[in-house]
Design goal:
By secondary structure, the protein is mainly α. It is built from twelve helices and no strands. It has helices at about 1-20, 25-60, 75-110, 115-125, 130-145, 150-175, 180-185, 190-200, 205-220, 225-230, 245-255, 260-290. The longest helix has about 35 residues, at about 25-60. The chain is flat, with a radius of gyration of 26 Å.
Length: about 290
């Protein structure tokens, strides 16, 4: 008898679930979907207008020789090279420290008092304005060495990149299932072997995503480089000399009355935007792979 009653309940429930929604509910759903679509288009409008302005003004002045001539010869190759060098220095300094700190926070110091203090410092560092980072690098590097340099600019960028790498590394490691750690321990693996051979290996796509996001953010920073690397219209003499960069070039020459220089600035904006977009796309592809 109870089985018959349960079958009737299941049949009534299935009919209710498979029945079409009421007209009012469907109209409400369509209205909300339409409103969400319109608000999404409204949010994308400023971005689209900025991209359109940069492309229309920059493409008209683009010349192939700009890619291998310095600013003094109406090009921006020295700024591209300077940006790559300083971002590379920042990555070289911040990636090892950021990854090891993230591993410590996620795997070895989860119940340690030092962990909470390190997380607190990392949160503060995430919200520090970039111009303050530039002033800090100026006091630590420029005042000590008595000269502006690419190394000082790379150091400032490393401070900006570090909290992003630490945060993404820690979160990527936390996403690895605990079962993998237990399986490694059951097979005789030590905590060190489990962490670096199993957990870190599985989290590499997520860690790499964080690194790409940090590089994309650092590539577009201007304020720290104004206090550290300064600028140069010609090729840099080395890591210990003033070095040009794409953001600072745009900042310095944007208000120039010369129409040729103005076109050069907008073309430089396209190159910088393409560089940031490149690393952003890589991070998105890696994040999809990790999921």
């Amino acid at each position: 008898m109870s089985g018959y009653i349960n079958s009737e309940i299941d049949e009534a429930l299935s009919k209710r679930l498979l029945s079409p929604l009421p007209t009012q509910r469907r109209l409400f759903t369509y209205a909300m979907n339409g409103l969400s679509f319109m608000l999404s288009l409204l949010a994308l409008f400023p971005l689209a207008s900025i991209l359109w302005e940069i492309l229309t003004r920059g493409l008209s002045g683009f010349k192939l020789e700009m890619l291998y001539r310095p600013l003094i010869e109406n090009g921006f190759a020295n700024a591209i090279l300077g940006t790559i060098i300083m971002v590379g220095i920042g990555a070289f300094l911040s990636i090892p420290i950021g990854i090891m700190t993230g591993i410590f926070l996620a795997e070895f110091g989860s119940t340690n008092k030092i962990t909470n203090f390190v997380r607190f410092l990392n949160s503060i560092l995430t919200g520090v304005p970039s111009i303050v980072v530039g002033m800090f690098a100026y006091g630590v590097i420029v005042l000590v060495t008595k000269e502006f340099s690419a190394f000082a600019g790379g150091f400032a960028l490393s401070v900006i990149m570090l909290p992003v790498i630490v945060l993404t590394t820690e979160e990527a490691l936390k996403l690895i299932p605990i079962q993998q750690r237990l399986a490694s321990a059951a097979l005789g693996g030590t905590r060190f072997q489990t962490t670096f051979r199993i957990v870190v290996t599985a989290a590499i796509p997520g860690i790499t995503t964080g690194i790409c996001l940090a590089i994309a953010r650092a590539a577009g920073e201007t304020a720290p480089l104004l206090f550290t690397a300064l600028f140069s219209q010609n090729w840099s003499d080395g890591l210990a000399s003033p070095t040009a960069s794409l953001p600072v070039l745009i900042f310095n020459l944007y208000n120039s009355p010369d129409p040729e220089i103005n076109k050069l600035v907008w073309t430089t904006s396209i190159i910088l935007l393409s560089l940031v977009l490149f690393f952003s796309l890589i991070s998105r592809l890696l994040s999809r792979k990790s999921r």
